[in-house]
Amino acid sequence: MLRYWTAGESHGRALLAVVDGFPAGVPLRSEPIDAELRRRQGGYGRGGRQRIETDQVEILSGIWHDTSLGSPLALLVPNRDYKLERLDDLDRPRPGHGDLTGAIKFLGPIRAVLERASARETAARVAAGALAKQLLEPFGIQALGYVVELGGVALEPLPGTLAQQRERRDQSEVYSLDPSRDDAVKQLIDRAGKDGDTLGGIVEVRVEGLPFGLGTHAQWDRKLDGRIAQAVMAVQAIKGVEIGLGFEAARRPGSQVHDAIGFDPAQQDQPHLGYVRPTNNAGGLEAGMTNGQPLVVRAAKKPISTLRKPLESVNLSSKQPEAAAYERSDVCAVPAASVIVENVVAFEVACALVDKFGGDSLQEMQARYRLFLEMARQR
Ligand SMILES: Cc1cc2nc3c(=O)[nH]c(=O)nc-3n(C[C@H](O)[C@H](O)[C@H](O)COP(=O)(O)O)c2cc1C
Question: At residue 332, what are phi and psi to the nearest 5 degrees?
Fold first, then answer.
């Protein structure tokens, strides 16, 4: 079973991910992890702290001669602006954060909660996801995350191959698939910043190259749609998750929702074994299992909670009304959320891949994967 935990506070010494159950024999590099960490810190609308940090991962264990050992991998992302010991507590909880509830639940300072609740923790989750992608790569599985809506403005994902879409996304300062709309969106973010306000949006992740049968229908906690929903919903500030048509499926008759099944013998060597679907409204998952089609996941991110023009709050000592505290904060982190969601989805897919073709090594997994495709073609 592949899994991970994270540790670390926002202004502590470092963020850490411990990845357990990662097969042996996977060629590993830290550069692709660093590239994802850099993208997480980028995107138009982020503030000064991102420029201080320039995250880089250190792979502390589980690796030998650039290859995974099959033992736990510890991924360390040091905090360049470590200052936790010098920071004071807050006395006015910020609406939209865990400040008020955390201080009451733990009978302690707000800072004890905000330091861990902060989305800085997602640096560790991105590192774990970017590691997992290096396991997906030998199976031809690729994930791409991008922004499809920002501040209420739709940014349609233009069609194209995943490689073309990746190229377009990497040209966009807001990580959308249509860089020609960047200026309009940047103006929107600038205006919100000037008004002391913040913006949310919707991100989408597409995973291609998936074989049939990752996940299972057989038990609720191993359904891949459920696992993905949990992983994505557990990202800070994500308030909704959709797979495929998602909520739109509820508004249409069944004939306009379900994806007809066809067979094209010319495509039998693809992971979908030649079973083609004219639409992919299911978003690649039926009954908690991948169905050979691309996985499509969307997530709604609320606007950043800390406002330069703060909302009303209460001083926890005096119990008198006062404006909420302000800690340096971004105006918009929707592009960064697309990086985080891409990587947490990739990790869940890797877990399901290990569950299905599990073995102690990449070599064994690949042999079982090839055997499965061979047997499935005979089915
Ligand atoms: C990439 C990213 C960056 C974030 N940056 C900030 C920030 O600068 N300031 C802030 O108040 N909240 C920020 N948040 C949101 C808070 O972490 C989050 O809203 C808060 O911890 C409460 O959790 P909840 O929204 O999941 O209920 C960010 C979220 C993400 C995904």
Answer: -150, 130
325 close to ligand 1 (CB < 6 Angstrom): no
Mark 15-47 as b/e (b = at least 16 C-beta within 10 Å). Answer: bbbbbebbbbbbebebeebbebbbbbbbbbbbe
Predicted confidence at residue 152, as pLDDT, reads 96
Q: Is 339 in the pocket of ligand 1 (CB under 6 A)?
A: no
Residues 280 and 260: beta-carbon distance below 8 Å:
no
Domain residue limits at 122: 3-378
- Determine the Cα–Cα distance for residues 107 and 86; give it in Å rounded to an integer: 21
By three-state DSSP, how is residue 341 classified?
A: helix
Query: From edge to edge, which strands make up the β-sheet containing 238-243?
Result: 153-154, 142-150, 201-208, 295-301, 238-243
Residue 135 confidence (pLDDT): 98
pLDDT reported for residue 313: 97
Number of domains composing the chain: 1
Burial of 370 (0-12, 13-18, 19+ CB in 10 A): exposed
Round to the nearest angstrom and report the end-to-end CA distance of the chain.
28
Judge if pTM exceeds 0.70.
yes
Task: For residues 225 and 211, give the distance between their C-alpha atoms in angstroms, rounded to a whole number.
Answer: 15
Type and span of the H or E element at 171: helix 162-171
What is the pLDDT confidence band of residue 359, given thresholds at 50, 70 and 90?
Answer: confident
Give the model confidence (pLDDT) of 46-63 as tens digits: 875 556 568 999 999 999
For residues 122 and 128, give the distance between their C-alpha atoms in angstroms, rounded to a whole number: 10
CA-based nearest residue to 47, from 221, 214, 189: 189
Which ligand 1 atom is nearest residue 94's CA? 11
CATH of the domain at 181: 3.60.150.10
Q: Is 117 a pocket residue for ligand 1 (Cβ < 6 Å)?
A: yes
Closest-lying ligand 1 atom to the alpha carbon of residue 301: 31
- What pLDDT does residue 81 have? 82
Q: How far is the CA of 305 from the centre of ligand 1 (A)?
A: 7
